[in-house]
Write a sequence for this structure.
């Protein structure tokens, strides 16, 4: 399978603190790549570097290369805003825009990017994305209701729909299920497996079962270093590194 | 066992007594705080209500020695001044507030915030002198514009600081969610952050408007006051606070009665604005989610 994203010598800093250290990784097209590791190991920082969201934080910077289809997104002439349109992101906490209705939330990325949609176009986008995010059946009768009126799991799927509406090629998910109950988590996981057909997905998770259930490839990060990266089955059944084995068997620390 | 139970009961009673005492003190403090408010409102009603009639709202001030007349020009003048001041002050204040919140920690933002805080502490009569110097003198006379500039000068730091506070209450995650959709920084600030904070910003704007509606000192030598009809921006204009001041210190009983009525109307306007905020925000100046 082709590599969608190639990471070369990626190092990320918060001021003087190094959060991610010299990572090389290849993320394959139409695949789910899971990033696991203990809290503070740099998982979130790593994925945030993949769509240049890391640098949004004051004092944060990244070095190295991230090639998206062979093009370095850290090249000086690249506009980070354009990068983020191609590499979408869903965060840990569901963040529907509180001033907008469900349908406006879905269309927000398009509207705020200055793309004006006619009524029927908008309806199509909203329906397509909500269906892709497996939320359509639950909200189709109340599209004008506030996004905040949904349950946490529904809000998170709304955020997925919103991210899909700008038609990204890659979807980064930063612990998308950590604020959700097991049933909502199961819905999101099903959704990931469906989306895999059309998107490249990178998911950060604390939940090793989640990585084992959903991911094709798994990366184990510890203290900012990439310890091991390989096929999920191999990582979980036959890890080559001692640290990985300790972590997945719960013997860590 | 019995001893332990007894001790517990005693301690319980002690706690209950302490609770009662503290509760009484808090209620007393509340009463002390609210008493002046109700005294002022009650006295205003008592002195002013009898002088309020249709003529008060529709007629011009009567010439000296003649009984009757009203403050129609001052009521209209106050609205004109406040609206003009808001037109000048709100965009500047809201813009500055958003800037301060979005560029927190930069040296320029700190300087602007410090300046706003200092401006809030400047006595309003000094603001009047400022407007006199920068508007009245160059224009060669008192004017509605000068009065509005003075009021806007008072309004700007108030609006700036409340806007900043409200924008800061918008969760960082919303900003990131918008940026992650490939939305530009300025569009994120405007359409997501500021829009989410809009309820709080409006509350701050209305409260600042209510505050300037009652200002007298900055208008004394800017808008000056006028006994006749004038809505001209370039001429002196009447306003309720100044009219009340002029009438109250006059030796004529009829004018003094009208000053009470004017004070009552002014208070009613300010109160209506503040109650309006409470109605809009559902009982409290609610922070945006």
């Amino acid at each position: 399978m082709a590599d969608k994203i190639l990471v070369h010598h990626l190092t990320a800093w918060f001021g003087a603190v190094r959060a991610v250290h010299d990572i090389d990784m290849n993320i394959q097209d139409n695949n789910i790549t899971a990033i696991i590791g203990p809290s503070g190991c740099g998982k979130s920082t790593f994925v945030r570097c993949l769509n240049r969201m890391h640098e949004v934080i004051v004092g944060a910077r990244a070095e190295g290369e991230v090639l998206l289809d062979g093009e370095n997104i850290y090249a000086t002439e690249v506009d980070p805003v354009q990068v983020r349109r191609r590499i979408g992101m869903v965060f840990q906490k569901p963040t529907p825009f509180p001033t907008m209705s469900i349908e406006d939330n879905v269309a927000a990325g398009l509207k705020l990017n200055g793309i004006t949609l006619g009524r029927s176009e908008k309806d199509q986008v909203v329906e397509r994305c909500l269906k892709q995010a497996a939320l359509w059946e639950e909200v189709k009768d109340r599209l004008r209701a506030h996004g905040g009126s949904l349950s946490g799991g529904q809000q998170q799927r709304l955020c997925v729909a919103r991210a899909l509406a700008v038609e990204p090629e890659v979807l980064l998910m930063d612990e998308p299920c950590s604020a959700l109950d097991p049933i909502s988590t199961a819905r999101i996981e099903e959704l990931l497996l469906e989306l895999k057909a059309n998107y490249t997905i990178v998911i950060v998770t604390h939940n090793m079962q989640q990585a084992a259930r959903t991911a094709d490839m798994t990366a184990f990060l510890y203290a900012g270093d990439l310890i091991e990266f390989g096929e999920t089955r191999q990582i979980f059944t036959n890890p080559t590194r001692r640290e990985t084995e300790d972590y997945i068997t719960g013997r860590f620390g | 066992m019995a001893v332990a139970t007894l001790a517990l009961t005693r301690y319980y009673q002690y706690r209950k007594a302490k609770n009662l005492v503290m509760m009484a003190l808090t209620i007393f403090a509340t009463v002390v705080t609210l008493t002046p408010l109700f005294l002022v409102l009650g006295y205003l009603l008592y002195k002013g209500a009898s002088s309020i009639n249709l003529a008060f709202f529709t007629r011009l001030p009567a010439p000296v020695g003649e009984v009757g007349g009203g403050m129609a020009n001052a009521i209209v003048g106050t609205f004109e001044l406040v609206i003009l001041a808001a037109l000048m002050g709100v965009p500047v204040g809201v813009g500055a507030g958003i800037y301060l919140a979005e560029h927190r920690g930069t040296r320029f933002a700190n300087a602007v915030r410090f300046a706003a805080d200092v401006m809030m502490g400047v006595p309003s009569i000094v603001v009047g002198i400022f407007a006199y110097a920068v508007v009245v003198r160059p224009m060669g006379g008192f004017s509605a514009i000068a009065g509005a500039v003075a009021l806007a000068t008072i309004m700007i730091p108030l609006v700036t600081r409340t806007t900043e506070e409200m924008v800061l209450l918008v969760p960082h995650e919303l900003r990131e969610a918008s940026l992650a959709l490939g939305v530009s920084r300025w569009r994120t600030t405007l359409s997501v952050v500021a829009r989410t904070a809009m309820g709080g910003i409006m509350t701050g704007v209305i409260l600042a408007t209510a505050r300037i509606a009652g200002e007298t000192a900055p208008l004394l030598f800017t808008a000056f006051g006028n006994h006749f009809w004038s809505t001209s921006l370039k001429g002196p204009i009447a306003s309720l606070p100044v009219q009340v001041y002029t009438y109250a210190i006059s030796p004529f009983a009829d004018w003094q009665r009208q000053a009470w009525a004017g004070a009552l109307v002014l208070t009613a306007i300010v109160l209506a604005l503040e109650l309006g905020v409470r109605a809009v925000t559902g009982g409290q100046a609610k922070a945006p989610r």
Observations:
- The mean pLDDT of chain A is 91.
- The two ends of chain A are 36 Å apart (CA to CA).
